[in-house]
Design a protein that fits this description.
The complex is a heterodimer of chains A (622) and B (379).
Chain A: H1 8-43, H2 45-54, E1 56-62, E2 69-70, E3 76-88, H3 90-93, H4 96-106, H5 111-123, E4 130-134, H6 138-147, E5 154-163, H7 171-174, E6 177-179, E7 197-199, H8 202-206, H9 208-212, E8 213-214, E9 216-222, E10 228-235, E11 238-239, E12 243-244, H10 249-259, E13 265-271, E14 277-283, H11 288-292, H12 297-305, H13 314-317, H14 327-337, E15 346-348, E16 351-354, E17 357-360, E18 368-370, H15 372-378, H16 381-391, H17 393-402, H18 424-431, H19 437-443, H20 454-466, H21 493-508, E19 527-533, E20 554-561, E21 568-574, H22 580-598
Parallel strand pairs in A: 2-12
Antiparallel strand pairs in A: 1-9, 2-3, 3-4, 3-5, 6-7, 8-11, 9-10, 13-14, 13-21, 15-18, 16-17, 19-20, 20-21
Helix pairs in contact in A: 10-22, 14-16, 14-17, 15-21, 16-19
Chain B: H1 2-14, H2 17-22, H3 26-46, H4 54-74, H5 77-112, H6 117-139, H7 148-167, H8 171-188, H9 192-212, H10 215-225, H11 234-248, H12 259-262, H13 274-306, H14 311-335, H15 353-371
Helix pairs in contact in B: 3-4, 3-13, 4-15, 5-6, 6-7, 6-8, 6-14, 6-15, 7-8, 8-14, 11-13, 13-14, 14-15
The chains are: A alpha+beta (622), B mainly alpha (379).
Chain lengths: 622, 379
């Protein structure tokens, strides 16, 4: 080491000096820790030992009972099952063999279990409670309680498991509970309790705070052997509140049953006045009980990867191009912009040319002369291409947002998807390219970039039916007629009338695309609109039944009824159903028929809310 | 002489693997084995005198970790020099991926907790940040060390992972990254002026930062520093932990006799708060001995660094020493109520697989620096 590399000696010297400083600093820090340890464990030891031993104050926490989830009629969708456990604390039991012998004469305990208890009692600290039997029946519980004076060191403890009595029919709605994870700890001490459950999805998660309640605790004096000497202070736990959803479980069950006839489909039914959701069904679904009672990793992974994503609630997380159900938006935007009116006619020769592109109407032979009424009735694309282009994307997207698209709703359902309402700013932010008028043309019939969820479609329908800014609600008590906070949308009443009449014609007049949705009741008229939206750009028009299932068009239908005094709105999407008129409209009709028969909004006094008078009074089967 | 050194290091690299393994610094191996064995005994006691479930698995992990340590130190040190930046980039990508992946999978997967990705990616960074900074100062001509431009770069290397883990949020790991990174810069020779400016700036800025907090945030900070404000919530752990320590007294209550820990008053007693269990059962004699073992281990690691010729090797050993020191200090300070509860395990001692492997990996790097202490990377 005779020759020094220039600078390296200096460098190493500086490193050594600084390392000494760091080492000294670390030694000092650890010295401080050591001093503090000395203070705690030697100087103040007697104080802490007194705290710990002589009159140690133990704080025992108790978990609150989780609130139940009910439907609008009080049917439990998620409830609790109490589990009773028998434990024994060897230290307090005196002669353990005798005590176990006595116990096994009161309740049946398997010999293996008895062996296991004895083995545990020998191998671990004898103050730790040992679990003897779980799932005690009421009878066994009563017998133990009677014998309690003779049983020393024996305790019965309560716990809860969550019960979902209706299986997959309400899986997406209720969601499920599971063990607390680190990231969920929010400062509430009850979350640290063993066996505590928190909501992981659906309403269980959305209303976690209300369902959970507040934990209670007991401060007790414990002597050195762990015996409780006296209770110093007690705070009772406050059970979580029950939550009554606006959902009608009878309708929900029927809807789920009906949806099973389609591979993948979803439906939302809503009270148009209050926004209360009566049905929210999505197929395929999953059984929350299976997850809440402890699912194996293999089963869980299977659920996650299964085709059709059963864990996904399509009604709020499925994003679909709305197709022709979007034409009401285009119509209202165009009417407000003044580019069309009641009488304004377009000519449909089967296609529309703009900027060197040809946009086809679904009816290749054309609709000839078309006014707004006929355009909605027969779902003429050309009329709306033209109306949309003249209105422009800014006004069109603004109207879409006003009617409830491109947003999520704060109604207690977590993980909603917002869909997509494109505009110039979005296009630049997303693709760094300017908006093209041709894209407005496509947006006018709900294609191109536009994406919506079934929930948003139901909201749009309710807003058109009432002209008010209806927002969806999941909880029954959140709405009363006196607390109706919905504001008017500020749309021209005449424009709304034109659109509603068009929707009425689509179902009830000759040539309408939605005639399959007509109800069998002659006195209840519905208004609706079909939608058939292209999945991907495929060579054919997507109607073809010979196409592979995944390439077929999505089928949509939105409707409200009764037409003259709207009460209910329904939105249906059948994934790859081929055509809105053929597969979504009949599904909507079946759901609406159930709504008429069960009429969940009927008031007990049979006031004006009663839909149909007497001939349908048999509406309470379940 | 340069040639001679180069020659020597070439010869060094040609040393057979078996010889490199035998040339590790055995006192370090003995020290970490002692610490881990004490931890395993504490875990045995926590489980009520049973090897299952904790002690058994911790033993297997330690043996596995020891294998890793030897493997890391047996690799040519140039390999670690080459891998430093790629490892850092990989670790950053993993940190970035966490929020994205976490978001897509939604509430569902987190519940099962299959991957534990957030843990894994910050563990990777614990190794990568040491490697990357050591590599940086190996490359940087010493005259540029205090040049502002060449200070911003390593600062960026430190700040990026700190920001990501703060978002998770994982305060303990953020403190580790920041302390290890800044101390390495200090050791690399960054001028005193910067450290003085930083200290003064911090003191001046603190009151403004405090004023910027909302009321509930202030309350949370206050509870952190004075847990007795909230005895049922955040303060619960600390009170119970202090009672456990204090009731241990000078000589402890004996194995399995700690009433605090055995009766479940202590939370997380096999992980972050294992030291409290141990201190109750082994008393001040036991806890101060363990603290001493940690201090000796840290100083031994530092002295291994002092014997290295290259900046890279020096900083590797120093990085491992500081990481061990920071985690030990933060954990024990938290358990005895000097620092807020931030969620930091006691290295080699607390129950936990990933933390064990990360620690052993870092120690393996320090060992590699020691084995190759004459390497200068100049040939």
């Amino acid at each position: 080491m005779a020759v020094k590399i220039p600078g390296s000696g200096h460098l190493r010297g500086r490193f050594t000096r600084r390392m000494f400083m760091v080492g000294l600093g670390q030694t000092a820090l650890m010295g401080v820790l050591g001093a503090r340890l000395y203070q705690l464990q030697v100087s103040e030891a007697s104080r802490y030992r007194r705290l710990a031993e002589k009159n140690r104050i133990g704080i025992q926490m108790f978990a609150p009972t989780r609130g139940r989830i009910l439907d609008r009629n009080g049917v439990a969708l998620a409830a609790n099952r109490e589990i009773r456990r028998l434990v024994i604390i060897p230290d307090l039991a005196g002669n353990l063999d005798e005590m176990l012998d006595l116990l096994s004469r009161i309740v049946s305990i398997s010999p293996e279990r008895l062996d296991a208890v004895l083995r545990l009692a020998k191998s671990q600290n004898n103050r730790i409670p040992i679990h003897v039997k779980s799932g005690l029946s009421w009878e066994e519980m009563a017998r133990i309680n009677v014998m309690m004076p003779q049983l020393s060191g024996v305790e019965t403890q309560y716990g809860f498991t969550r019960l979902y009595p209706h299986g997959a029919d309400f899986g997406h709605l209720t969601g499920y509970v599971g063990a607390v994870e680190r990231f969920e700890i929010d400062g509430d001490p009850v979350l640290h309790l063993p066996g505590m459950l928190v909501g992981k999805a659906g309403v269980e998660r959305g209303f976690e705070k209300r369902l959970r309640g507040r934990g209670g605790n007991v401060k007790v004096e414990i002597d050195s052997k762990g015996h409780i000497l006296r209770t110093i202070d007690k705070t009772e736990q406050i059970a979580g509140s029950d939550i009554a959803l606006s959902i009608d479980s009878r309708l929900q069950r029927r809807a789920m049953h009906r949806l099973k006839r389609e591979k993948r489909a979803s439906v939302v039914a809503m009270d148009v006045k209050s926004g209360q959701i009566l049905v929210m069904a999505s197929n395929p679904s999953f059984d929350p009980q299976r997850i809440a009672s402890g699912i194996s990793l293999a089963d869980w992974n299977q659920l996650l990867t299964e085709p059709g994503n059963p864990l996904t609630n399509r009604a709020i997380r499925g994003q679909y191009p709305p197709g022709s159900t979007f034409k009401m938006v285009t119509a209202l935007a165009a009417l407000e912009a003044g580019v069309i009116d009641e009488k304004k006619k377009s000519y449909c020769g089967g296609s529309y040319r703009f900027a060197d592109h040809t946009y086809r109407c679904w009816k290749s032979s054309g609709h000839r002369d078309v006014d707004l009424h006929k355009a909605l009735r027969e779902s003429c694309d050309v009329f709306f291409y033209d109306a949309a282009r003249k209105t422009g994307i800014t006004a069109l997207s603004a109207m879409a947002r006003r009617l409830g698209f491109g947003q999520t709703f704060d109604c207690g359902l977590p993980d909603q998807k917002p869909g997509l309402i494109p505009d110039q700013d979005w296009k630049i932010a997303r693709f760094n390219r300017g908006w093209l008028d041709g894209e407005t043309v496509l947006a006018g019939i709900g294609q191109g970039y536009v994406l919506t969820t079934p929930l948003q479609l139901a909201v749009m329908t309710a807003r058109i039916a009432t002209g008010r800014k209806i927002v969806p609600m999941m909880v029954k008590a959140d709405y009363t007629a006196e607390r109706d906070l919905s504001e008017p949308l500020g749309l021209n009443e005449n424009h709304l009338r034109l659109v509603r009449n068009g929707m009425f014609a689509s179902v009830n007049e000759a040539g309408g695309t939605g005639s399959n949705a007509q109800l069998a009741f002659s006195d209840i008229m519905i208004a609706g609109k079909t939608g058939t939206s292209q999945v991907a750009r495929s060579a054919s028009n997507g109607h073809d039944r010979r196409l592979k299932w995944e390439e077929r068009n999505h089928a949509l239908f939105v409707s409200y009824f009764p037409h003259d005094a709207p009460r209910y709105a329904v939105a249906v999407i059948v994934d790859h159903g081929g055509s809105g008129g053929r597969s979504a409209a009949p599904l909507a009709r079946d759901v609406m028929t159930d709504l008429v028969q069960l009429d969940p909004l009927k008031t007990p006094s049979n006031g004006p809310g009663n839909l149909t008078g007497d001939q349908l009074g048999e509406g309470e089967p379940a | 002489m340069t040639n001679l050194l180069g020659h020597q290091s070439l010869a060094d690299r040609r040393r057979p693997v078996s010889e490199r393994i035998w040339s590790v610094y055995w006192p370090l191996i003995v020290l970490i084995t002692c610490i881990t064995v004490i931890g395993i005994v504490a875990l045995w006691s926590v489980a009520g005198g049973s090897f299952a479930p904790y002690a058994e698995r911790q033993t297997i992990r330690f043996l596995f970790g020891m294998g890793l340590l030897f493997a890391v130190s047996a690799m040519p040190i140039r390999f670690w020099l080459t891998m430093a930046y790629p490892a850092y980039v990989l670790a950053i990508l993993a940190l970035v991926a966490v929020p994205l992946v976490g978001y897509e999978v939604g509430g569902a997967k987190r519940w099962i907790n299959v991957g534990g990705f957030s843990v894994q990616s910050s563990e990777l960074m614990k190794v990568a940040i040491v490697l990357a900074l050591a590599r940086y100062y190996q490359m940087l001509p010493h005259k540029l060390v205090s040049h502002p431009l060449w200070i911003i770069l390593p600062l960026g290397l430190i700040v990026a992972p700190v920001v990501f883990v703060m978002k998770q949020p994982d305060l303990g790991t953020a403190i580790l990254f920041a302390t290890v990174g800044l101390t390495m810069m200090f050791l690399a020779g960054v001028s005193w002026i910067y450290w003085i400016v930083m200290a003064v700036g911090g003191i001046v800025a603190a009151p403004y930062a405090w004023d910027g907090l909302r009321d509930y945030q202030k309350e949370r900070v206050l509870i952190f520093f004075d847990p007795e404000r909230d005895p049922l919530g955040a303060g619960y752990h600390i009170m119970q932990s202090k009672i456990a320590l204090g009731s241990g007294g000078l000589s402890g209550r004996g194995l399995m006799q700690g009433t605090q820990s055995q009766l479940n008053f202590l939370p997380e007693k096999h992980t972050d708060f294992l030291f409290a269990v141990y201190a109750e059962e082994a008393g001040f004699v036991g806890s101060i001995s363990l603290l001493g073992l940690y201090l000796i281990t840290v100083l031994v690691l530092m002295s291994m660094g002092l014997r290295c010729k290259s900046q890279f090797a020096r900083l590797l050993a120093a990085g491992a020493a500081i990481a061990l020191a920071v985690y030990t200090t933060v954990n024990i300070a938290m358990v005895i109520g000097v620092l807020p509860v931030v969620g930091a395990p006691l290295p080699l001692f607390s129950y936990g697989g990933t933390a064990m492997l990360t620690t052993m990996f870092l120690l393996g790097l320090a060992m590699s620096a020691y084995v190759n202490r004459d390497e200068t990377f100049r040939s």
